Amino acid sequence: MPVLINEAGTGSEVLGELYSLDRDSLAALDELEGLGAPLGYVRLEIQIVIDGTKIPAWTYTKPPDLVSLVHAGPLGEYVADPRYVPGEQREQPNQGFGVSGDRR
Predict the structure, then answer these.
(1) I want to staple 21 with a disulfide (CB 3.0 to 4.6 A). Which of 25, 34, 57, 66 is the partner?
(2) Closest by Cα among 75, 71, 74 to 84
(3) What's the CA gap between 27 and 43, in Å, rounded?
(4) What are the residues whose beta carbons fall under 8 Å from the beta carbon of 65, sequence distance 6 or more?
(5) Do the bridges between strand 53-62 and strand 4-5 make them parallel or antiparallel, or are there none, so unpaired?
(6) Cα–Cα distance between 101 and 87 in angstroms, integer?
(7) What is the pLDDT of residues 43-80, one digit of tens each?
(8) Other beta carbons less than 10 A from residue 29's beta carbon
(9) What proportions of the chain, in percent to the nearest 5, are helix, strand and coil?
């Protein structure tokens, strides 16, 4: 599954999508991304460019030391990997978040 790696001075531009969320939806997304969990993501405010204008936006990243396996080089755009197995279909659905059954 693609991941943004938070490593200063590296990387490239990526094509993405921007959504407007209320606080409850952002909190639900934080939980889904494992924010605060030992192996979860970190929410980071970045500057994005839309029609030549920079605006702030949130993204979820991981520090390089939490990314144990890289299958490919940088991706300019996310395309679903047919090898990806959705969480509910895995033997251990919460694998990767540190504590089975609890994503916090």
Answers:
(1) 25
(2) 71
(3) 11
(4) none
(5) parallel
(6) 12
(7) 999 999 989 999 999 999 888 887 766 556 666 666 66
(8) 16
(9) 15, 20, 60
